[in-house]
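Field reference: sequence -> structure
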Amino acid sequence: MPQLLLKLLPYLKAYWKELAIICLAMAFLGKMRYDHRLLIKTYEEQTIALQEQIDGLNLIHAEELRKKEAALQAYKDSLEELEKDYNREKRNNRKTIDRRRDQIEEQFSQNKEELANEIINNFNFEYVPM
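Structure field:
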């Protein structure tokens, strides 16, 4: 081994600058490849993390859409029920009004003064005979 070193020593002395440049270039290329691998790894990790975030947001969005549809259906059902109740009450009111009108016609058809007194009591109108 020492003989090999003695044979290389003149060569190393003559070309030390070139050898230093080659060593530095190899170190630079090695560092560059290492950094490139780190960048690729970081990029892949970020891609996975962002895809997980997108998947999570899509799940949240789907859940919100489901809740919205359920709320709209509940609203439609309740509106339909209200319309049914309204129509039923409207029919009941119409029947009550018709019965009351018939009752008043029967009650006051012969006695107009009693009808005038009833109007005055119920509506605070003043009866003016013609």
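Note: The mean pLDDT is 90.
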